[in-house]
Amino acid sequence: MAFRATVLTLYPEMFPGHLDFSLAGKAAERGQWSLDTVQIRDFATDKHRTVDDTPAGGGAGMVLKPDVLARAIDSASENDNRPRLLMSPRGKPLTQERVRQLAAGDGVIIVCGRFEGVDQRVIEARELQEVSIGDYVLSGGEPAALILLDAIVRILPGVMGNDLSGLHESFEGGLLEHPHYTRPQEWEGREIPAILTSGNHGAIEKWRHDQAVSLTKERRPDLIRAQKAEKAG
User: Fold this and answer.
1) Most Cβ neighbours (<10 Å): which of 8, 79, 111, 228?
2) 42 marked as binding residue
């Protein structure tokens, strides 16, 4: 069964965006995955198609209404067991492990928030799993949804052509990826490390691993600490 993504948004015209190109676009043409959008505003019941209201307790901005969003979610997920995700800066950080879990399923239903946020009651009542792509705030969940889908689609079976391509990337195995080089052998006085042209595959793999460990210690020591904690536990 092909991977199915359904995105609930106030701006369906933002999709498929960059996913219409390159590997993801070709995979969609081959039927390996599909994307459809749901306009949340279609589920408003007043003549102005209102989807937001002022925050209870006061404060700046507006909040996405639970009744309107719930109707949109129910319409998109009737008799559907796909996980329901809400792109949110307060969600659990997206990891490569989580991406692989999602890619192994039948698909996802993604809610793109706007304004100050989404009414907590609909998050709880519709069991939305909040997902964050980083410690920053965007104007809406649409760019985050595109990033999430990009990460998922590229590792679906057959999408990259060579499935081994995804096994040596950053965050696979808990490390950042090693440096890459290609011809010409010398460029602006800089040489490809001799080990990479030695033909000694065992030595090359060790060099790549050592480089990955070194880079991770320098740039993401939190990943090293997580590995140590996992082993100790």
Assistant:
1) 111
2) no
23 is in an annotated binding site: no
- Residue 233 annotated as binding site: no
Query: Does pLDDT of 165 surpass 70?
Result: no
Is 113 assigned a ligand-binding role in the annotation? yes
User: How far apart (Å, rounded) are the C-alpha atoms in residues 96 and 163?
Assistant: 15
pLDDT tens sequence across 115-150: 989 999 999 999 999 999 999 999 999 999 999 999
pLDDT at residue number 138: 95
36 is in an annotated binding site: no
Pairing type for strands 84-93 and 107-112 reads parallel
The encoded tokens of residue 76 equal 């998109």
For 48-80, how does the pLDDT look when each residue is reduced to its tens digit (9 = 90+)? 999 999 999 999 999 999 999 999 999 999 889
SS3 39: strand
User: Do the annotations mark residue 195 as ligand-binding?
Assistant: no
CA atoms of 138 and 86, how far apart (whole Å): 13
Strand partners, 109: 6, 84
